[in-house]
Amino acid sequence: MMRRKNWILRMSTSALVAEKVWNDIESTHSVSDEQLSILHFLFGKNLERAMRIVDQKGVKRMLGHPSGRSIFQVVGESKRKEEYLCFPQHYCACYSFFYDIVNRGEQLCVL
């Protein structure tokens, strides 16, 4: 039981640090080397894969009117270039979401 509590505490701390970094990036519209280093420490290989997808223009934001809600259409890195719908902070239809988030409890999935 104590081990699980420690894991939850670490996960919560990581989530708070990540949220702070994301908010700073969003407010300045730029990313520093220090911020990248922190995010890489938190997310490792998943951050690298996500950045490749963004660099390859594999993310399209779809905005609903009048609600203002967003979903994202993401082209995965597989050879088939499958497209997935991702609901921010809630769900992604890709295999990585199920494997990394649901099964392993990581905080970021990458297609």
Could you write a compact summary of the structure shown?
The protein has 111 residues and is of the alpha+beta class. It contains four helices and four strands, in the order H-H-H-E-E-E-E-H.
Topology, element by element:
Layout: H1 2-28, H2 33-43, H3 45-55, E1 59-63, E2 70-75, E3 83-87, E4 91-92, H4 95-103
Tally of individual helices = 4
Instruction: Please report which band the strand proportion falls in: under 5%, 5-15%, 15-25%, 25-35%, 35-45% or over 45%.
Output: 15-25%
H and E order: HHHEEEEH
What's the rounded overall pLDDT mean? Answer: 78
User: Which stretches are poorly predicted, pLDDT < 50 over at least 5 residues?
Assistant: 4-9
From the alpha carbons, calculate the radius of gyration and give it in angstroms: 15 Å
Coarse structural class: alpha+beta
**Biggest sheet architecture:** 4 strands, antiparallel
Gap between N and C termini, in Å? 32 Å
Strand order of the largest sheet: 1-2-3-4
The total number of structural domains is 2
Helix content: 40-55%
Shape: globular
Q: How many E-type strands?
A: 4
